[in-house]
Design goal:
Layout lengths: L20 E6 L4 H12 L6 E4 H6 L4 H4 L4 E5 L6 H12 L12 H6 L10 H19 L5 E3 L3 H7 L2 H10 L7 E5 L2 H11 L3 E6 L9 E5 L4 E12 L2 E13 L2 H12 L3 E5 L5 E2 L2 E10 L2 E10 L12 E2 L1 H27 L5 E8 L6 E7 L15 H10 L19
Parallel strand pairs: 1-2, 1-3, 3-4
Antiparallel strand pairs: 5-10, 6-7, 6-10, 7-8, 8-9, 11-12, 12-13, 12-15, 13-14, 15-16
Helix pairs in contact: 4-6
Length: 414
Amino acid sequence: MESRTAILLSANRHKPAGLVETVLIGVADSRRTSLFQQSLARMGQPQARVITFTDLLSGKALIADCIKPPVILRIDSPGKDFETERRLLHLGAETEDDRDYARFSSEEVNRLEFERGRILCPRQWYLGFCRALELIRAQLASSSECSLMNNLTDTALMFDKPRCQTALNEQGIPTPANLGEINSFAELRERLRESGCDRVFIKFAHGSSASGVVAYQTNGDKHKAATTVEMVARGKDVRLYNSRRIRVCREVREIALLVDSLCRHRVYVEAWLPKAGMGDRTFDLRVVVIARRAMHTVVRLSRHPMTNLHLLGGRGDLDQVLERMGERAWRAARSTCEQVMSECFPKSLYAGIDLRISPDYRRHSVLEVNAFGDLLPDVLCDGLDTYATELAAVLGGGRVHVPSSQSSPTISRI
């Protein structure tokens, strides 16, 4: 099933593509679903049939009952929906793990109530998410005329950041130095002494949107940690919450408690590389690669180490960045992003790549690869947003226009 290309192609790019059935697995009322449906409508295509994760995982919906081949299947983010999160945690509770990380029992999952921003066992969530992908794979086993926009194995790999970084390194993709996984603040201190590194990012292995991220630096005597995480003590229990507010901690005991609490959910450490600046802020780039071409790009500004757009740092001027970089450096950066997809994830149509640009604007490195990193409202490339560009690649003979001297790529069946 997955050995076929992720893209359905029309026979001739100069002929209008016919109507194509589209099925979307996601969250029914999410912004992502709404924007994707709008893109389908603008392209004269019928609305996608939406299967919610909750209906799929509860058995209320079967993929085979919802498709009329040939069909395109898009799997979107299960995030920002509490009932979906509970379903995935239930699946994770039923899945054995070879690691001893924090877990909820099924009974405890049943008793959970929605608390805004609360971090709920991301390792267990990931195990449940992988089980959900396997369920989709099993239901698609007999659907030879169904094509996935993104490969299921690729999606699972992108959500395992340490494994993803290893895959990138194996292909020679420039990334921050990986100091490995840690189990405590004491182990972090020892790892820093061994490596000679004094500035690092501590990240969940299965996090997204800066969840659980800590930017930590020390000279051995003084300590500083910037994070979006807030800790709330409940007796002996410490609950963790995500916030849009960046907190700065300088008390080593508080930092140790924070890191120890995060380590219960599987974390890894990577070198904190300096980023290019624009005015009084630093930035990185989110580059969406579609059909193996770097397309939509947004400059993510911040006065803090984290640059995620939901933290309200703002968007910068891409033209200004490109002018500072120059054609040669920008071409190399685009080439690296395209290499990520062509060599590490060749069976997937798209992904969002977080790209760090060095302070001299000449060098770059890949920070993360995001399976659902194509949500960039109002960011256009050649007049199309990300979703429309993905659909154009699917419906237009596998060609997407790249506004540069490079010829447009042709994606053929594998």
